[in-house]
């Protein structure tokens, strides 16, 4: 149970106090009414004695009476009624008493920590204590006990009466008539000889004091000095002491007097308890009428109005208008206190002592008579009519005398004697089957045992259990059962037996009284939370039950309080259905109590959380919320409140600065830059930051400024948002807000706009950007971009929304703040020990002065290239701002992919795609027929040949682009050397011509994807020539070097690609130059079809020594066709040592196209082979993408028949003599004969680059190579014989094995190749001699 102000001993003692009746004359009533009080109310604050009283028990032992309180009440006669239940009037008044006692606002509640729960609630329940006190005072008097029977009667007469003694006589006769005439069953009197105490009331303001003293002396003579008293009062003068502040001790007691004052008038009241109960039950607090309209809460308001109409008159609560005790001084207060003490100590206690002695003597006499009687007389004792629930005993019955004596001893705190008497009476009642009497004796015996000093015996809790069960089940008396439960629960709580107390309280709940059940359930909840190990969930559950019963009893404030306390346990504990029920009830109760703010908050909780309710239930919740919300807006139209729906995922808010980029316009392809459609990638962001650092360093003489911050065009939860972003004046800002509808019903939104707040001075007001209506359906996430034009200043954003309900035309207006929480800090020890978050400034902008804005478009930009292919495109730069830009630069992740041309040297290419002029990759020169393969040479300074840095300055005229101006430049593109899809990123940099801006520069991103397919594979090697220098023809320098270039067509596209032509071989070096081509065939144009290879042989000589100190590079071109390519004007020839220029003939859309390109090989060391491809790429084949797992195809081994489709033979001279001194190369013609041994067409591939690995071939010299075409693809008809002329090149004399060609053959209808068995034949040896 909750904590009480009184201790359990004080509570039990105050529950059973001596009752004193009051009879006043009319004149005495008039005197007391001057203070807005009757005589009983006048005495009530002073009825507790502050000093100890003494009396002697029947054994002549002194008994000390401490802290005694008496109860004084006016005599009220009423007809007899059954005491089994309270009347409707009494129930109504108890209900009003609880209703008027509410928790005080601002009182600090207790915080109870149980596990991970921190509960904040009031530890005291004053409404329960008030109810309990009034309930005990309102209990009707019963015949089976005498505790609430009157022991004495105060006869009060005014001194202004003509003959006061006659008035005393009349009042005494009236008291005697009420007690003994038999006309009235109530009030009940303790003993026949009731103590009469005569009080003479003297009004000091109008009466004669001497006459009053004389009358009092006469009263002493008549009634004795211990039976009368002179009480002087009303000594205060308003004129003289109007400013004196006198305390008012009556206010706290007057409300408790409501019960006795309104019981008399309740019968005539037109507002009965039935009507109250009918109004309360009109709408059940837990009933959810899903079919009702949005105005269903009007009925709740009507109930509230009716309840207020039925409330009691405030004047009756206050005891009348005006203040209390206005005519009394502090001395008068002391006189009243002294009067009570005199009456108690000199009148009441002696009277009780005398009656105890008399009753004790009577009981002893009866017991002696019974024991002295012969045994035969025991069976002839008078029998009384008995029933199961009660027994009629005559007043002189010894059982009642014992009970009466026990009650008297209990009232004067003689608990030991009281327990003995109760115990004796209990046995007699049980033997007579007088269950009501027995239950009463058991109840008081248990209480007496508990109150005994020193606790000589344990508390007999089973007495209380038996009494409660008898009252409730046998006697059907819920009033007495409730009193017994209240006493027993308080005693168990004091002993720490909270579990037993809670069980006892819960058992007492029933459907006959909602108020009683609510109060007891609440106390049971407090028992659960006050245990040694608090049972938090039981506390919450019983608080919910108490709130439900409070609501049924019309106690809506108490119901709201219970639900709010229980909500602390269920909140955010995954009890979603329980949370919804509690929040819905809190919302309805708050609305009924005219607390729309709390109602809106409660309904918000239902709508913001992910609800597990059905769609119909959620629709009802939403309807109630919209109705309450709309009424709140009517009450407070100035403020724009927060809306719970739709849910905004604040951390997912993205902010985009600047205009959205234009898409492609015709043949123009706009730069991709940054858009809201792109997903954020940290690796990509780091890459762009690195590129921007390169640009900034190039613009600042190679140094990156300390305050450099990378440009962030789009801010999200993953970007660095600790600094205020910079926005440019008059440029738009796009804010993308993500909404989510957690309900299963659709929401219609309209008039969405962003609200902001300026902090700059003299800024023009900003207008809201409105959007069209949209609908958010169930579980749908919607991203909304809202554009705002910024003028100046620094502002914060929030979102304004209108919500339309889908079931009616109700519209509510509100807003939702975009409160973005920064990242959690984890740097210092304090950050790691606590939860701290940094700042997120993505919605706090700093607006700067105007900046230039550039747009870039690409024309004729390819998406697919051959490896090494050179293509010409165009790029257009447009300044779309009102500020000039300069310092245009670009950096790329693939700097060798592109090169800019100059407007001065390259004519502008038209935009039309049909124009083919100036689209050639080379500048070609016609070459007349020459004898031999002479090389063309050109010297270039080292400065022109220097390796360029990653940052490229874009060559525009004047280095400045004025507002509205655009320019176009040629852009040379070269296909990557590696096949596959390549992502190539460009970052363009530009600055404003003005200085001092907060934004130093701006950048523009562009990303392209190029699909590179295979073309040729070039492998080169160098070896020293064996020809002496003086025998070298045309070589005036030192010794020469032989260069072997092996070119292979590795393009796999047989459909569109026809053939490759090698038109020129070029070299660039400071020390070497190409001299001539020494291919024996003297072919001018090398042509390669699919999977063919060719070997070229060149002589290289040293460059002539340079006389000047300037380093120069020698460019040498050896053309193999009719045109010479000027490699000095080519953009990539400066980077590599050897360059192979090619032309590819492609058939596309039934048209033949000529593609041009370059392949580069860098030779660093003589004798070491270099390749245009890496070894991994040279070995692997292009694999198609597979989108699902596939089993690998089974390996098919070639059969013996397939390996013998073609037979091969080599025809050559066995001995060959060559003068190596004059010519270092010895070329011998060899004939390869192919014979088709089958009756089907056979596809044959000859590969001359195969090197034998058999033991026989390793024994002979193998330092020779095949020159000319090194790979052939042929088709043999059935049984056809074909002769193929080959050329073998030898560098020195020796014995060589010519059996190295590798032949593949397959039937034309099959797809698999198989090697013939000719490779395992004996070696084909040739002897080379030196002449």
Automatic annotation (TrEMBL):
Residues 1205-1306 form the TPPC8 C-terminal Ig-like domain. Residues 1007-1129 form the TPPC8 third Ig-like domain. InterPro entries: Ig_TPPC8_1st, Ig_TPPC8_2nd, Ig_TPPC8_3rd, Ig_TPPC8_C, TPR-like_helical_dom_sf, TRAPP_III_complex_Trs85. Pfam families: Ig_TPPC8_1st (PF24545), Ig_TPPC8_2nd (PF24544), Ig_TPPC8_3rd (PF24546), Ig_TPPC8_C (PF24542), TRAPPC-Trs85 (PF12739). The gene is TRAPPC8. It comes from Sparus aurata (Gilthead sea bream). Residues 867-1004 form the TPPC8 second Ig-like domain. It comes from the Eukaryota. One of its GO terms (cellular component) is TRAPPIII protein complex. This is Trafficking protein particle complex subunit 8. Residues 677-778, 808-866 form the TPPC8 first Ig-like domain.
């Amino acid at each position: 149970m909750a904590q009480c102000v009184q201790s359990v001993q004080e509570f039990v003692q105050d529950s059973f106090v001596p009752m004193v009746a009051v009879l006043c004359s009319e004149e005495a009533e008039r005197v007391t009414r001057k203070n807005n009080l009757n005589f009983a109310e006048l005495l009530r604050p002073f009825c507790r004695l502050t000093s100890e009283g003494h009396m002697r028990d029947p054994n002549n032992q002194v008994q000390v009476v401490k802290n005694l309180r008496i109860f004084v009440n006016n005599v009220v006669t009423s007809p007899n009624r059954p005491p089994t239940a309270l009347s409707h009037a009494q129930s109504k008044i108890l209900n009003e008493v609880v209703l008027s006692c509410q928790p005080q606002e601002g009182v600090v509640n207790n915080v109870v920590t149980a596990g991970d729960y921190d509960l904040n609630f009031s530890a005291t329940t004053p409404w329960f204590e008030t109810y309990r006190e009034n309930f005990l005072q309102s209990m009707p008097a019963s015949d089976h006990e005498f505790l609430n029977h009157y022991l004495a009667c105060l006869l009060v007469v005014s001194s202004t009466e003509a003959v006061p003694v006659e008035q005393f006589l009349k009042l005494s006769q009236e008291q005697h008539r009420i007690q003994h005439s038999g006309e009235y069953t109530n009030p009940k009197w303790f003993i026949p000889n009731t103590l009469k105490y005569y009080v003479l009331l003297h009004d000091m303001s109008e009466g004669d004091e001497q006459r009053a003293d004389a009358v009092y002396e006469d009263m002493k003579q008549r009634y004795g000095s211990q039976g009368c008293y002179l009480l002087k009062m009303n000594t205060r003068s308003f004129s003289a002491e109007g400013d004196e502040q006198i305390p008012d001790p009556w206010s706290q007691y007057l409300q408790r007097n409501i019960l006795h004052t309104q019981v008399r008038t309740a019968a005539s009241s037109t507002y009965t308890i039935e009507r109250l109960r009918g109004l309360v039950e009109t709408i059940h607090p837990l009933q959810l009428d899903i079919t009702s309209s949005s105005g269903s809460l009007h009925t709740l308001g009507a109930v509230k109005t009716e309840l207020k109409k039925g409330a009691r008159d405030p004047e009756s609560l206050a005891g009348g208008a005006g203040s209390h005790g206005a005519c009394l001084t502090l001395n008068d207060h002391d006189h009243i206190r002294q009067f009570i003490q005199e009456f108690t100590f000199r009148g009441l206690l002696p009277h009780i002592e005398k009656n105890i002695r008399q009753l004790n003597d009577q009981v002893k006499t009866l017991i002696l008579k019974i024991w002295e009687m012969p045994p035969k007389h025991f069976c002839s004792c008078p029998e009384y009519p008995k029933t199961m629930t009660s027994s009629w005993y005559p007043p002189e019955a010894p059982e009642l005398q014992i009970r009466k004596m026990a009650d008297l001893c209990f009232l004067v705190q003689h608990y030991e004697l009281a327990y003995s008497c109760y115990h004796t009476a209990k046995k007699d009642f049980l033997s007579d089957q007088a269950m009501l009497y027995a239950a009463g004796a058991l109840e008081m015996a248990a209480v007496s045992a508990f109150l005994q000093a020193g606790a000589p015996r344990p508390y007999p809790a089973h007495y209380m259990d038996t009494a409660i069960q008898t009252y409730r089940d046998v006697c059907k008396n819920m009033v007495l059962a409730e009193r017994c439960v209240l006493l027993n629960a308080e005693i168990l709580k004091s002993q720490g037996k909270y579990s037993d107390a809670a069980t006892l309280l819960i058992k007492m709940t029933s459907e006959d009284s909602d108020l009683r059940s609510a109060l007891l359930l609440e106390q049971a909840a407090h028992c659960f939370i006050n245990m040694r190990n608090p049972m938090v969930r039981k506390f919450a559950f019983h608080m919910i039950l108490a709130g439900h019963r409070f609501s049924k009893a019309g106690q809506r404030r108490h119901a709201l309080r219970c639900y709010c306390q229980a909500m602390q346990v269920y909140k955010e504990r995954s009890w979603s259905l329980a949370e919804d029920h509690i929040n819905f009830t809190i919302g309805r109760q708050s609305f009924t109590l005219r607390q729309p703010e709390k109602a809106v908050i409660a309904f918000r909780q239902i709508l913001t959380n992910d609800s597990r309710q059905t769609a119909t239930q959620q629709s009802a919740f939403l309807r109630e919320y919209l109705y309450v919300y709309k009424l709140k807006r009517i009450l407070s139209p100035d403020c724009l409140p927060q809306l719970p729906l739709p849910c905004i995922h604040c951390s997912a808010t993205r902010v985009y600065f600047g205009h959205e980029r234009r898409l492609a316009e015709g043949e123009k392809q706009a730069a991709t830059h940054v858009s809201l459609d792109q997903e954020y990638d940290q690796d990509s962001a780091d890459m762009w930051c690195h590129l921007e650092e390169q640009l900034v360093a190039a613009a600042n003489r190679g140094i990156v400024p300390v305050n450099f911050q990378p440009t962030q065009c789009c801010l999200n939860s993953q970007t660095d948002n600790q600094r205020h972003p910079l926005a440019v004046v008059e440029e738009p800002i796009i804010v993308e807000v993500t909404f989510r509808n957690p309900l299963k019903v659709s929401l219609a939104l309209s008039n969405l706009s962003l609200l902001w707040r300026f902090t700059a001075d003299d800024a023009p007001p900003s207008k809201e950007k409105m959007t069209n209506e949209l609908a958010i359906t169930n579980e749908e996430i919607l991203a909304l971009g809202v554009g705002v034009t910024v003028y100046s200043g620094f502002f914060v954003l929030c979102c304004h929304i209108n919500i339309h309900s889908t079931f009616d035309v109700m519209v509510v207006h509100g807003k939702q703040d975009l409160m973005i929480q920064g990242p959690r800090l984890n740097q210092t020890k304090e950050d790691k020990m606590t939860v701290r978050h940094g700042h997120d400034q993505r919605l706090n902008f700093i607006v700067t002065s105007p900046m230039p804005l550039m747009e870039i478009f690409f024309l004729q930009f390819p998406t697919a290239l051959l490896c090494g292919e050179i293509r010409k495109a165009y790029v257009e730069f447009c300044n779309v701002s009102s500020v000039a830009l300069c310092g245009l630069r670009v950096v790329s992740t693939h700097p060798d992919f592109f090169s800019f041309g100059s407007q001065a040297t390259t004519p502008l290419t038209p935009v039309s795609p049909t124009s083919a002029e100036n689209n050639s990759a080379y500048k070609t020169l016609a070459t007349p027929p020459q004898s031999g393969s002479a090389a063309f040479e050109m010297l270039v300074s080292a400065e022109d040949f220097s390796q360029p840095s990653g940052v490229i300055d874009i060559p525009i005229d004047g280095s400045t682009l004025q507002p509205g101006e655009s320019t176009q430049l040629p852009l040379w593109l070269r296909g990557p050397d590696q096949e596959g899809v390549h992502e190539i990123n460009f970052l363009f940099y530009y600055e404003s011509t003005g200085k001092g801006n907060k934004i130093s520069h701006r950048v523009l991103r562009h990303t392209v994807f190029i699909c590179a397919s295979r073309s040729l594979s070039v492998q080169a090697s160098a070896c020293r020539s064996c020809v002496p220098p003086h025998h070298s023809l045309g070589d005036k320098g030192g010794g020469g070097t032989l260069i072997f270039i092996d070119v292979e067509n590795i393009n796999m596209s047989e459909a569109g690609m026809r053939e490759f032509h090698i038109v020129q071989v070029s070299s660039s070096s400071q020390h070497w130059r190409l001299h001539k081509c020494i291919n024996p065939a003297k072919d001018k144009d090398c042509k390669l079809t699919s999977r063919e290879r060719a070997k070229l042989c060149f002589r290289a000589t040293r460059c002539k020594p340079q006389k000047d100190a300037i380093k120069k590079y020698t460019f040498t071109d050896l053309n193999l066709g009719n045109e010479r390519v000027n490699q000095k004007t080519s953009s990539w020839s400066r980077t590599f040592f050897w360059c192979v220029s090619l032309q590819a003939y492609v058939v596309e859309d039934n048209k033949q196209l000529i593609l041009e390109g370059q392949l580069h090989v860098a030779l660093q060391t003589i004798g070491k082979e270099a390749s245009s491809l890496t070894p991994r790429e040279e070995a692997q084949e292009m694999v198609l993408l597979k989108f699902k797992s596939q089993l690998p195809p089974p390996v098919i081994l070639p059969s013996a028949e397939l390996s013998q489709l073609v037979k091969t033979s080599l025809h050559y001279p066995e001995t060959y003599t060559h003068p190596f001194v004059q010519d270092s190369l010895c070329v011998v013609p060899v004939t390869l004969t192919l014979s088709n041994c089958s009756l089907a067409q056979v596809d044959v591939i000859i590969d001359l680059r195969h090197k034998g690995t058999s033991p026989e071939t390793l024994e002979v010299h193998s330092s020779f190579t095949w020159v000319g075409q090194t790979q052939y693809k042929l088709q043999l008809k059935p049984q056809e014989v074909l002769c193929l002329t080959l050329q073998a090149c030898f560098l020195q004399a020796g014995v060589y094995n010519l059996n190295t060609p590798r032949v593949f053959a397959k039937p034309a209808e099959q797809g698999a190749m198989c090697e013939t068995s000719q490779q395992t034949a004996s070696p084909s040896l040739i002897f080379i001699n030196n002449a």
